[in-house]
Amino acid sequence: MHNGRILVTGGAGLIGSALIWELNRQGATNIIVADLLGKDEKWKNLAPLRFADYVEGVDLFERLEQFKDVTTIYHLGACSSTTETDAAYLVRNNFEFTKTLAHFALSANRRFVYASSAATYGAVAESLPETTPLSTLRPLNMYGYSKHLFDCYAEDAGFLDKITGLKYFNVFGPNENHKGEMRSVVYKAFHQIQQTGAVSLFKSYKPEYPDGGQMRDFCYVKDAVAATVFLAEKVTGGGLFNIGSGEPNTWLALVKPIFGALGREPNIKFVDMPDYMRSKYQYFTSANIGKLRAAGFTRELTPLADSVIDYVKNYLLTGLHLGDEPA
Hints:
About 35% of the residues lie in helices and about 15% in strands. The protein is α/β, with parallel strands linked by helices and about 325 residues long. The strands form four sheets. The protein has a seven-stranded parallel beta sheet, sandwiched between helices. A two-stranded parallel ribbon has the order 7-10. A two-stranded parallel ribbon has the order 8-13. Helix 3 (about 85-105) links the parallel strand 4 and strand 5 (about 110-115). Helix 1 crosses helix 6 (about 220-235) and helix 7 (about 250-260) packs across helix 10 (about 305-315).
């Protein structure tokens, strides 16, 4: 893969910039980055990284013919807001653009790896394999549906087994500063603790889950991009893969290490969940990563507490981005 040029869309985002960091660590710098830098400070994620060229996302498709020597495409660019309600906007950004890039890749046997999402699974309260029929899935929000649309399109068009779609679960870690309300609970809780000495979590509205006992599959971004690069290099096509830690953890297990990293005793308050969220709230998510393991990805994933401590101590407290780390 390192012998050809690599295109990374969404390259200034959380997963995209972490992916470039991982590629740099493996010696690859022949990278074209595409993104929409806008008016926020997402550009800071790119500053420590090494790449050959940059193109604004709005100009990418009219310039595709200039990138015929690209051999691998990581398509991570999308609107990732789970609260976005403009369906037409999401269809254009998350479905139509993905179709265009997929056909460009397949036209010349280029490697195509794209970001799907665990949001495509909807409200299921069990660990589902990627072989779950796509027709049975019911995403809870338009973001999840826009991702699901392309998964279904690729399957119906008969080329899903020639490309690789990654169903990322709850990815968190360095380089998410720009994400506004979509920043992880670790990021938000860190700043909340710094400002108030406490952190607020939503109450549970299901008796089987105590307050703070709602569960998620939290995946450290360093592990997520390691799996992403592995699949691009080692697996030809392969269809859909779950990318997560493979185990559910509670919100309490997520936030308590933040207090520990800051040398504080836990101080957690439970607040009411807004009414509009209650019908769409997921109480349990867990990635079935059996297919990823069967493909040969043997890396030991970072335990949740260690991930949180690394993030807090080495990035949130220092203000560093991936690539800024001392040698």
